[in-house]
Amino acid sequence: MDLPEDAGQLEAEAVRRDTRDRWLMSVPALMIIFLAAAGPLLVMVIYSFLTPGDYSGVKWEFSTNAWSSILVQRDIFDDTLQWADAHLTIFWRSVSLSIITTVLTLAFGLPTAWFISTRPPGKREFWLFLMTVPSWTNLLVRTIAIQELIRAEGVINNVLIFVGIIDEPMQMMFTNFAIGFGMTYVYLPLMVLPIYAAVEKLDVRLLEACYDLYASRWHAFTRVILPLIKPGIIAGSILVFVPCLGAYVVPRVLGGGKNLMFGNLIELQFGAGRNWPLGAALSFLLMVIVMIALIYYIRITSQERKDG
Amino acid sequence: MEAQAQVPVSDADPTPPADTSDPAAEIAIDARRISKVYRGEDEVRALDNVSVTIARNEFFTLLGPSGCGKTTLLRVIAGFEPPTAGTLWLNGKDITRLPPNRRPVNTVFQSYALFPHMSVANNIRFGLEMLGKPKKQIDEIVDEMLNLVQMQAMKSRRTSEISGGQQQRVALARALAPEPEVLLLDEPLSALDLKLRKEMQIELKRLQHETGITFVFVTHDQEEALTMSDRIAVMSAGRILQIGSPQEIYQRPAERFVANFIGESNFLDATLSGNAVTFRTGGTYEVERPADVEDGAVSVLLRPEHAILSSDPSALPATVETVVYSGEATSIHTRLDSGEALKVRVPNAPHSGGLPEQGAPVRIGFAPGALTVLKD
Amino acid sequence: MAERSAFSVRTIPGFSAIAIFCFVAIYAPILILVTFSFNAGTSLAVWEGFSFKWYVAAAHNEQVQSAALRSLMLAFVAAAISTVAATMAALATTRTRHFPGRTMIYAMINQPLMIPEIVTAVALLIVFAWVKVVTNHTSMIYLIAAHTAFCIPFAYLPIRARLETMDDSLEKAAADLYASRWHVFSRVTLPLMMPGIIAGLMLAFVISMDDVVITEFVKSAGQDTLPTYMLGQLRRVVTPEVNAISTVVVFAGAVLVSIFFWVSSNRR
Predict the structure, then answer these.
(1) ipTM for the complex?
(2) CB count in 10 Å sphere of residue B230
């Protein structure tokens, strides 16, 4: 480029001004998010190192009790340390139900994604739309819909009794089954979308090549299709696993008071349990786990974009 | 697509080929009256009552412009497209309904379709593993194949890390490894540059010779077809127009389309009477009369390189319009007195001179047998 | 001519059946819920005839009225503010080379999407409880702030997508024709990015209307929105009134989302 001597300086000045303007334009959004989302998270971290107040809130005394009491608790009578069994049970329920839900949504979501991507090109949008619309409608309403399906006097029990398979209503509400069932229903679209994106990129000629080379349906699926759509499966699994782990509404409505998950345990510390520092510590722990999963997810998806 | 009705085709020939027991049992592929119709807003007849037999050990080429149905026919043989009508026989067995993974037929895809998540060696292993061959034997064959296509050094590379020509070799090796009865090649050289393409043409001929496998090769490149094939089928609009050796196709094309598609051609209007044609400019010449052409107006093919500048008074009078020098030969574009254009191709000798100039009157002659009467 | 049975390489046995089951299963519970909202009886399981009575009951329920109004008001305000903020941020972060801090702005704007709702809810409860004690102020401002914050990334997404597909040659042409910076923006840029802004506004509105977790933790006494009211009702004897409210919420949401898809796919 043929530029005068001071062009570099002028340009640098213009770039500086442009950058400053862009920051100024972003300030309102950044301020709102800082005040009403990100900033409070920092306060929450501080709270996790304080002492619980007598009725609610905190006393400003430094303590790591909240963090240690996540895993162990001091016996009231003989002052010995014991595993916090109640917490561990809830963690285990959260993790296992999240894994089961992820597996179930995969089992149903993969065929659904495959089905959508094998529709004629003009009609795929329609099927995708059909899959996505419910996930944008109210989560609570969808949870209520499941509740009405599986209640003692709900549709499933009524149909089963009518057909004569059972004599009296099955107790499905307020069980782990209810939570898993509800979460599978609610989060299925989150599995379908990324797998669909991966299946759509799959080159049909690779399938032809593997059938040409004598692969059975099973081998074509396990040796060619699955490895090639694996990034989509991992992405979908993370997208389902993460909200399951932090689920609050579904276990509250369908799990009742006994079958708590991580989110409900957190809530408990701000309600009846009244241990704000413990609640803050639990929240922070959940946040870290979720962040790690999401960072992994972002790395996979951006890697995909680079490759494909 | 899963629930398509299995309705038997009424006009299919249920009997096995009559010639299974005689020496012509050397037939590998026998396609009988195959049609393929795509139904949609407007019906597309991709294959229209196509019948062809391909001998064992043959290098057979399907040649035609894009959209002529050659790839569809290949895909019917591979088993990816079920024919709308007709039957397909392989070594005397009806394989019309056999799915692709149970046909002893392998394809080299135009895009190669190499599995991106497997190494070169694992791509070649794939078919052998699917056939359930013992591991030791698979290792041997893979090794042999890597040597055959000279890819031994690249065997653990990913397929995305090798060049186009190398991908081509791997695709070949992968398709050859299970020792198919027939190897189908769908324009496999079209993605390569000219020099590499020439090398691969020779390579393919060598591989076909060494393996003794029947090759069915699809191309739109007439030169490629002529250099490589034992026999060529020229296709257009879903039909096979002519099947023959390269010489037959080039020298005795059956139709104007074939003549036009392969090589350069002059077409002259003439009147056929008995064993002779009379041109519009005058002059009557002996021709080999095709069986199915009636007396009257016909088209006559004269290849430019079969025409010569002549001083014979019986030769056709013409005027030179353009002279184009192209290295090994010179093309002289002339116009006959009838107004028809005629191109003459003269090979360039070391000290050739004396080419006619623009506007000069010339006479054009030709060797006996150079004229071909076409059905139009 | 008869078509032969096709061996389709894209077919996997059983997959279509599972997929159809999924599509049915995704809509069936909602349809059942909607059906029983028209039940003449009080049961959620036994059909006793068609009636609008639960809709009438819900419409006359003062708590429902105030919760619905509050939800709408909150969603309007939060969606409007978040869309304006998101539009500015989108203008700042698209169609430019990388500038210092751009990745940070991205991360910050998408931050509410990365954190589980319950975590944000608890953090807000901690901070706002303290602010409420100190200032003794308990208006809707807390809910508006919280909703606006988590609506921003949803409003930002479609606006940014729209901007990224926009060719800046039109703006250059306008500048070439003597338009001032303001006129370039108001006469060319803004009209062109309108579909993205409308889509962002609708998405933000829907997201705010649907929220239950954060609202539940941030609201002061007597500040129920429709979702928190419904959540509270679930602890009591459930009547088809909840179904009636749910039906209205679902249909309103589905309509908005359909318009959102239509706007964002049509005007490309």
Answers:
(1) 0.89
(2) 16
